[in-house]
Design goal:
Blueprint (H helix, E strand, L loop, with lengths): L22 E5 L2 E4 L4 E4 L2 H4 L8 H13 L10 H12 L5 E5 L2 H20 L5 E5 L8 H6 L3 H4 L9 E4 L4 H8 L4 E6 L2 E2 L5 E2 L2 H14 L3 E4 L23 E4 L10 E5 L1 H4 L15 H16 L2 H22 L4 E7 L2 E6 L3 H12 L1 E2 L1 E2 L4 E4 L7 H18 L1
Parallel strand pairs: 3-15, 5-6, 5-7, 7-10, 10-11
Antiparallel strand pairs: 1-2, 2-3, 4-12, 8-9, 11-12, 13-14, 14-17, 16-17
Helix pairs in contact: 2-10, 3-10, 7-8, 11-13, 12-13
Bound molecules: pyridoxal-5'-phosphate.
């Protein structure tokens, strides 16, 4: 018998360690806490706010949507859903989209779709999907299993069968897949985000794509963090000259309104016939209106070009700091505005000092990696403000 209800715990489960501020308002690259303190936000809500906080274009579209329709279920046609699907397929190598509500749900759907293909086309119902060490694919049972990190899986067994792990950026992994007759798909991030901001090597990724093609198995690219412009192209796979067969997105697609999606080429996507998969809220009028407005703003405001220019500026200035403080900064890496800085000091101490002493917010990606994720539409003066604060923290550490 469980104890009677305790009156002494916080009503929200403590699954997150939280920084000791309450954020009340956001606009552009700034947030304000409940004391009225203003912070420069270079976390973008964990790579979500490509256009910054409460972007005018999306705000206007959502206010309109609030007055017309919030929800009607996928038993009816939804205009904004169809429009967003057309935009995503027009700008990617995939033919069809399924909408859901999060990154994990998108990856879960991608895994189901790959299994469907394995069952019905490859006739390998017992096969497995290969994922890579240090990957991150989500927190549901299957995506947690796909996530090859002990610290994510520990204490949640039994894991879901049907996954196998290989080393990232390692030639022997390509050979292992080639020789693996039960491999029914390969799933990877073009830049491992949570795993430490580690970009895939270009030749390795191309060899991996070639092996998938040769074997007739789907290449599944998880662009939940890299997708929707974060790396300077709409999708990170574009940098690599490869084409995924299944592609997942979420974080930045709705400018902060919860939405996810998986896309696929038609030979695969066609296997999802009526009744095979579902999601009550997936593709709902409100979230897809946010998606449409976000992608329209990308075009109108030339967001991809801005991202690339900002990424070049920020990366150059971080590399200057690295030259100046080689004992403190070990490397600067990433792609576009998904930037990792490897530090000698614990990353969390730098994050805390930036927040407390300079009102600047950034994230970590592991014990000694800072993760810097500005809105894609940041500008030179915000970048300079960040660089000045970061330099001061390093001087204080020296
Ligand atoms: C954030 C993330 C996920 C999980 O997305 P949720 O919306 O938190 O479920 C999956 N894959 C990658 C690469 C991510 O960065």
């Amino acid at each position: 018998m469980l104890e009677t209800k305790s009156e002494h715990v916080a009503p929200v489960m403590a699954a997150y360690g939280r920084f000791p501020i309450t954020i009340e308002k956001g606009k552009g690259s700034y947030v304000w806490d409940s004391e009225g303190t203003k912070y420069l936000d270079f976390t973008a809500g964990i790579a979500v706010l490509a256009l910054g906080h409460v972007p005018d274009a999306v705000e206007e579209a959502l206010k309109k949507q609030l007055d017309t329709l919030w929800h009607c279920s996928n038993l009816y046609h939804i205009e904004s859903q169809e429009k967003l699907a057309a935009m995503l397929t027009e700008h990617s190598c995939c033919d069809q989209v399924f909408f859901c509500n999060s990154g994990a749900e998108a990856n879960e759907g991608a895994i189901k779709l790959a299994r469907r293909y394995a069952n019905l086309v490859l006739h390998k119902p017992e096969g497995h999907i290969v994922t890579f060490n240090h990957s991150f694919h989500g927190r549901t049972l299957a995506t947690m299993t796909a996530t090859a990190q002990e610290k994510i899986q520990s204490g949640f067994g039994p894991l879901v069968p049907g996954f196998k792990y290989l080393p990232y950026n390692t030639d022997s992994s390509v050979q292992a897949i080639k020789e693996d007759s039960e491999c029914i798909g390969v799933m990877l991030e073009m830049v491992q985000g949570e795993g430490g901001v580690i970009p895939a090597d270009k030749t390795w990724a191309q060899n991996l794509a070639a092996v998938c093609k040769e074997k007739g198995i789907p290449l599944i690219v998880d662009e939940v963090q890299t997708g929707i412009g974060r790396t300077g192209t709409l999708f990170a796979y574009e940098h690599y000259g490869i084409e995924p067969d299944i592609l997942t997105v979420a974080k930045a697609l709705g400018s902060g309104i919860p939405i996810g999606a998986f896309l696929a080429k038609k030979q695969i996507s066609q296997l999802f016939t009526p009744g095979t998969h579902g999601s009550t809220f997936g593709g709902n009028p409100f979230s897809t209106a946010a998606g449409v407005a976000t992608l329209e703003a990308f075009e109108k405001q030339d967001v991809l070009a801005k991202c690339t220019a900002n990424a070049n500026d920020l990366t150059m200035k971080l590399n200057e700091i690295k030259e100046k403080y080689p004992d403190q900064i070990k490397s600067v890496r990433g792609l576009g505005l998904l930037i990792g800085v490897e530090t000698a000091a614990p990353a969390i101490s730098i994050v805390n000092e930036l927040r407390e002493n300079y009102q600047v917010l950034i994230l970590t990606a592991g014990k000694h990696v800072l993760r810097i994720l500005p809105p894609l539409v940041t500008n030179e003066s915000e970048i300079d403000a960040f660089i000045a604060a970061f330099t001061n923290v390093l001087i204080e550490h020296a």
